[in-house]
């Protein structure tokens, strides 16, 4: 190598290095999004939790715009509320933003639950889950879900009930059926007992010492895993190719370990139960408050019941496709109640985002509720008006089930179980107020967060049979 070549090589390396450095420092020079990080360590946590969290988010958006920084629960966060920016985080640049949960939640649900992951493992498990919950699969369990709905409503007759708690029982039983098929009745009580202890520790301090809630939860988790291992072993010995979620997991060619199956089943029950139960609770509230909407839904459902000769349990998949009015009530409830106000991601590297820097490790929170309640996307956003869904919402403005690689794989099942429940509730039961016989008892405007937004006290109601 002559000296000119060496010089040229050295010169180009220096040029490359300085170009790289200036690019990197240029990136660093990007500003952080506007906003305030509050007090050292506690940040703005008190501000967030001392009021309705939605007021906190809305006032920040008013002050700083649709992308702003804050500091809550020990994490530096960037919150975003424009449809385009949310699409970038969840869909187009999703590889730069991984799902993130506190370590204690991962320990309780199980570290191998697929929604904690990204990449190949997530994609494979998600495919197996989607196989069990796609319309082709769930259309075969309409009558089983219907039986669960009819039984639940019968047990409410004449009683003063806590709507949310009763809906939790319904959605839990539907989730078990979709996971274990007809085998679920054999294990229902054991699974229920352990799961109820487990969930009590979900929001507790993660101190794993005898006597603490967290410790009891971890013990219940172990017992759940043991019950699930027994169910797997029985099924391996007896039957194969069941069309439920367990069958889908067992059909995986490479084979999942018992631990992977257990973590994913526990995670799935967690994702399925309280979400759907709180949406159902809000629907009851909105129907109670909007008699003309209730009447329109009842008429639609009674027409289907008449076509089915007034039989008690005969709904088909095709019937559930003849419920446009009821479907719009579900959509509007998902929008107004926005039970998942936001979700969490974490930047996997420094990301340049709309002219700002999101540093590696910062949390990124797409604010679904702010989008659903923005007058730019929905006129009179606080008004409950299902007819607005006669026209499809603008792209990326209606995200009750998220978007992209981690969007909800259970959304079809959730909508199906809600439709079936509303069918039986409106055709067989009355409201006490005016000529109806469902009465909503107690204060009606309070909202509690636990963690999903819920009507006050779980919405106590009393139903009575139509005569
Ligand atoms: C109306 C009820 C429901 C609502 C509003 C809802 C909402 C959501 C949302 C917004 C996400 C995305 C979260 C994110 O991007 O971080 C999600 C994910 C998920 N949901 Fe649902 N969900 C509901 C019912 C269900 C049901 C019934 C199931 C199971 C049968 C289910 C299973 C899941 C799972 C497993 C994920 C994680 C998916 C992934 O990470 O790939 N959900 N849900």
Automatic annotation (TrEMBL):
Protein name stated in the entry: (+)-abscisic acid 8'-hydroxylase
Reactions it catalyzes: 2-cis-(+)-abscisate + reduced [NADPH--hemoprotein reductase] + O2 = (+)-8'-hydroxyabscisate + oxidized [NADPH--hemoprotein reductase] + H2O + H(+)
Cell location: Membrane
GO molecular function: (+)-abscisic acid 8'-hydroxylase activity; heme binding; iron ion binding
Required cofactor(s): heme
Membrane-related topology note: Single-pass membrane protein
Pathway: Plant hormone degradation; abscisic acid degradation
UniProt-listed PANTHER family: ABSCISIC ACID 8'-HYDROXYLASE 1, CYTOCHROME P450 26
GO CC, alphabetical: membrane
EC number annotated for this UniProt entry: 1.14.14.137
Signal peptide from the UniProt entry: 1-26
Amino acids binding heme: 408
A GO BP entry: response to abscisic acid
Top-level taxon of origin: Eukaryota
Keywords (A to Z) from UniProt: Heme, Iron, Membrane, Metal-binding, Monooxygenase, Oxidoreductase, Signal, Transmembrane, Transmembrane helix
Family: Belongs to the cytochrome P450 family.
Top EC group: oxidoreductase
